[in-house]
Amino acid sequence: xxxxxxxxxxxxxxxxxxxxxxxxxxxxxxxxxxxxxxxxxxxxxxxxxxxxxxxxxxxxxxxxxxxxxxxxxxxxxxxxxxxxxxxxxxxxxxxxxxxxxxxxxxxxxxxxxxxxxxxxxxxxxxxxxxxxxxxxxxxxxxxxxxxxxxxxxxxxxxxxxxxxxxxxxxxxxxxxxxxxxxxxxxxxxxxxxxxxxxxxxxxxxxxxxxxxxxxxxxxxxxxxxxxxxxxxxxxxxxxxxxxxxxxxxxxxxxxxx
Amino acid sequence: xxxxxxxxxxxxxxxxxxxxxxxxxxxxxxxxxxxxxxxxxxxxxxxxxxxxxxxxxxxxxxxxxxxxxxxxxxxxxxxxxxxxxxxxxxxxxxxxxxxxxxxxxxxxxxxxxxxxxxxxxxxxxxxxxxxxxxxxxxxxxxxxxxxxxxxxxxxxxxxxxxxxxxxxxxxxxxxxxxxxxxxxxxxxxxxxxxxxxxxxxxxxxxxxxxxxxxxxxxxxxxxxxxxxxxxxxxxxxxxxxxxxxxxxxxxxxxxxx
Lengths: 257, 257
Description:
The structure is a homodimer.
Chain A: H1 11-18, H2 22-39, E1 42-47, E2 53-58, H3 62-76, E3 82-83, E4 87-88, H4 97-110, E5 118-122, H5 126-137, E6 141-144, E7 155-162, E8 167-174, E9 183-191, H6 195-206, E10 210-219, E11 232-240, E12 243-248, H7 251-256
Parallel strand pairs in A: 5-6, 5-9, 9-10, 10-11
Antiparallel strand pairs in A: 1-2, 3-4, 7-8, 11-12
Helix pairs in contact in A: 4-5
C-alpha cells in the first residue's frame, strides 16, 4: 500500500494476504492511520462499501517541510557551487535519491487533493524531479525534449523564447505521451526568466490538456519580471560575483499559511 | 528504514522513536525479518554490537522477477510500438513509476552484495532507470550528456563510435560528479551496437573509477556482434517489418541459475 500511493486497495486484499477477518484488518488500519497522522507521514483514507478500500496519501507537515527547505538552502549556499556566468551547480542534489524523495514528497503534498494525471518536465535535469513527484502521486511523467529523437515517434513541437538569452528555441513532446484533457503538473529544477516553463505551458495547451500547477526546486530573482503567473518554488537561488545566495522560495508560505 | 535501503539504522533509533526497550525492538525486528523473507521483499540484516543496527536490503525472488520480465515483454510486444527505421517506442514504460520501481528492484537485487558507489547513465531515457536503481541501492546517480551544458561546470569528454551509425559522437560528464576509485554501475534503457555503453565504460576509466557492471532494460539482436563483454538485459527487443518481437534477456538465467 505504501508502495502504491493514491491507489485504492480493497480490504479483501489485506484479508487474503494476512489470512485474517476483514474486521480485524479494519482495526489494524485504524491504528496505522493514527500512527501515520501522529508521525506526519501521510493520510490513510478509508472508503466504505463493496467498492471501497483504503488508500495511502503521503504528505509532509509544515515543520518537516520547513526542515527540508532549510537543508536544501544550506546545501545550496556554498560558493563552490558558483559557475562562470552566474550559473549554479546543483547536479549532485538532483542525483541524490534521499533529496529527491524529500522534494517529491513536498510537491506531492501540494497537489494532495487535486487530480493530477501526469507530471511534465523538460530534459535533462527536470527528469529526476518529475520522476520523484510522479512516484509520490503514483501517476506517469512525460519528458519534453530540446531535440527530436527518432525513438519518440511523431512529436508536437513548440517554439518559445528563452528568457535569459532572448533566443528562440524549440521543444518537442511525443504525440503519444499525453491524452487530451489530462490534468498536468509541470515541474523543473531551475527557473530563470520562465521561458522554458512558458514553453511547457504552451505544450500543455497544444495537447488540449489542463494545467494544474507549476513547481520548481529553485528560481532566480528574475531580472525583468517573469511571464509565468502562478508557480511554487522551494528556493530562491542567485549567483553573482563568485557567490551563491539562497533563500526560501514561496512554497512554505503558499502551502501552509 | 524501508525508505533508506542499504543504510544501517541503530537499534537506539527505534528505541527512541517507539519509546520501548531495545530488547523488544529486537524481537519486533525478528518478526519483520521473517515476514520480509517469506514475502520475498528483501533481507533484514542485523549487525550486533555498539556500532551495530539493522539494515534493509530490498531484493526480488526468481518467481516475481520472472513475472516482471514477462509483463514487460507482454507490454513491449505491441506492433503499435513500431517506429519507422526499426525503432521501438518505450517512453511510456520509462514514465510509469510502478514499472520503474520493478526495474529498479530487479537490478538492485543483482548488485545486492556488491559495493556500488554510483549509478551512471546517459541522458535522456536512461535517467529514470538510473534513478530507480539508485533509489533501491540508496546511492547517487550521475548523468552523462550528449551536449555540454554550462550548468555542469568543467566536464570530462569522451569520443565514441555509435555502433548503429558508425558516426563518431561525444559524451560529457561533469568533473565534480564522480570520485576516483568509485565503484560504478552503468544502466541504460536500450542497447543496440553497444557504442553508447562502450563510451560510458571509457568514461568510467577516465575518472579512474571501477566498473561494477552494465544493465540494460532492452537489447536488440546485435547485427555485427557487440564490443561490450559482460552485461545484463531484461529483454531482447527487435523491430522489423512493422512488427516488434520481444523475448527474455539474459537476466533471469544469469542471476538465478
